[in-house]
Amino acid sequence: MSANRPPFLRPLLLASALAVAGVGACSGQTPGQVSMPLAGQPATPAPELVAGLPDFTRLVEQVGPAVVSVQAEIGSKPVVAQSGRVPQMPGDDEGDDEEQIPEFFRRFFGPGMTPMPGMPGMPNARPRGTSLGTGFIISTDGYVLTNHHVIDGADKVRIKLSDRREFVARVVGSDEQSDVALLKIDAKGLPVMRIGDSKLLKPGQWVVAIGSPFGLDHSVTAGIVSAVGRANPGADQRYVPFIQTDVAINRGNSGGPLLDTRGQVVGINSQIFSNSGGYMGVSFAIPIDVAMNAVQQLKTTGKVTRGQLGVQVQAVNRDMAKAMGLADANGALVAAVEPGSAAERAGLQRQDVIRSVNGQPVYESSDLPPIIGAMAPGTRVALDVFRDGKSRTVTATLNALDEATADEGRLPGMQKPAAPAPANALGIVGQELTAQQRSRLGLQAKEGVLIARIEGQAARDAGLRQGDVILAVGRNDVGSVAALNAELKAAGQGRPVMLLVRRGGGTVYMTVDPAQD
Predict the structure, then answer these.
(1) Would residue 465 be called left, alpha or beta, if left means φ above 0 and alpha means ψ between -120 and 50 degrees?
(2) 271 or 13, which is more confident?
């Protein structure tokens, strides 16, 4: 018989035979002997910290009926994104090519569908067809929660219940920032998903997902919470502190519930980290607290409003903390204060570090937007701010969030500027900005200096590059090459220098440590 076995099976079978027969041979035992502990090994094994794997069958039986399948039908009419670019329809070069989907945070759709219009690198119209997703019922009279990107641009949305009944749903409201959509079907006495508290989630807890990956309704997967409060660098959802899990979710799981072991929904499955388009062990869910905040506003007004402080912030690194005299790198560094904003009225300044909001710590710069965004416009907040070596409390009254975004294009003439010799210790060669360039950047006259060339290694290592615009050295504004060189004249004494830099539509502080040159 063994001669007839396929060759690829032989090594496996041989290894199995050795594993069985070799137990006694390797240990010098005869069958039936009891092995003794090796030297240094405890006679009594350590107690197990996890007594068996959990059984999720009761949970699924109880909550499964409240999970629904969502089919969003997109017709032949092009859906143009807010950016106003030319839509790409099926048959165009970019229309159905999934290789163009950015690696980070791919959206989940049914077969043949592409990510949400307007995402970086993607077409700005969705092809006609059917987007497949998941949802769950949150009220007995037919309110259903799902993702915004599942139903975005749909002409008709169909809901299929676990008992195979189907309904045409009405879109009550949808919020792109939180990726939450509220639907309504005409039905009564429906099973309901119980709402949990996502703030109580901790890394290591078991969680369960139920959804329709690839149209396979009511598929169940389980895993643990990997992290909470994750920022999303791959899409403009800075107001969502995502729950990261290792629960297997794929296309069609979008909008489905993430459940704790009590059967309560704690999140809405939304995104994955993938370089293949499929599950790779890292999944993200919208906290149910964020989603229900959006639901209440969508029910009442049909839209979601958020508080806005009016600052651009960035992370604090070790060099920045050293330069500012901070004991640690916690907090959100203010890189820009918007004119007329709540931050300006409250007296916030560039290079302030926001350490907490109403007593809630801000460890990372990404912590600040969700905290502020969860508050209603008009809310008064107390900010713990570090400035000039001292902590102080600043009180601000929040504005309503302005959804307008800055122009991310580079300035004309930035690629090949003139390159005079450096006149400062950091080796930064400056060039005067033209009136047209300042206008494109939204700068005033005599504001900012263009970087023409970088000759200092420390400046390169800090991430500065040709085409950046330096607005300030520390707190001191610069508007000419002479002013820049004068401010940098003292550099090279071994102390890190903080530069306020405009790149594209964003403004950030960058720290150059001359001691590293």
Answers:
(1) beta
(2) 271
